[in-house]
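ingest -> fold -> write
write: protein_1
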Amino acid sequence: QVQLVESGGGLVQTGGSLRLSCAASGRTSDIVRIGWFRQGPGKERERVAAMTWTGELPAYADSVKGRFSISRDNAKNTIYLQMNSLKPGDTAVYFCAARRSVVGNYNYWGQGTQVTVSS
């Protein structure tokens, strides 16, 4: 099993920045790909950013390209989502998720952290 714990959410004004963290523990050797999802009020869940567990092949949703960046601290088994130039539309619960395969569903999910961007 893999456990994922997010932190770093909060309230920020439009144009501000936040950095989310996701600490992975357990059988992290099972992880092939890891990423961030979000679900805003009244919206479907969407993938925001993802990369391989080794930090390669990053991919971003069009809505966040150029503003968000995913990265990893190998020593801490922690991934980050740096969010800049935040907009009210970025308001959502952000989830960290990981999967055991190159393609397919994400198998492990964190509990989520709330990000609220005020106008």
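write: protein_2
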Amino acid sequence: QVQLVESGGGLVQTGGSLRLSCAASTRTFNAMGWFRQAPGKEREFVATINWNGGSKYYADSVKDRFTISRDNAKNTVYLQMNSLKPEDTAVYYCAVGGLSTTSYDYHYWGQGTQVTVSS
């Protein structure tokens, strides 16, 4: 069982930056990913990274603005978000599972952290 705790969310203006963190309760050699869910919408893939950081995938909507990274010594994955837009407003979830863009392939989930981008 892996427990995940996200942090770093908040309110930021358009064009601003935030860095999300997700700490796992134990070391994992699985992929770690970020998903988000806006009000009234389905959960969508944002980014994922394999165990050693050698493979990373991004949703087209965040490519070139967001960067995923991980520090296995700290059991933590990060999401650096730059040039934020109002459409990035959502609850962001961290997950552990397969290296996939599909939520069904992730077995453990955090509780989520709110990101709000004001226009």
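write: annotation protein_2
The radius of gyration is 13 Å.
Residues 47 and 58 are 4 Å apart (CA to CA).
pipeline exit 0
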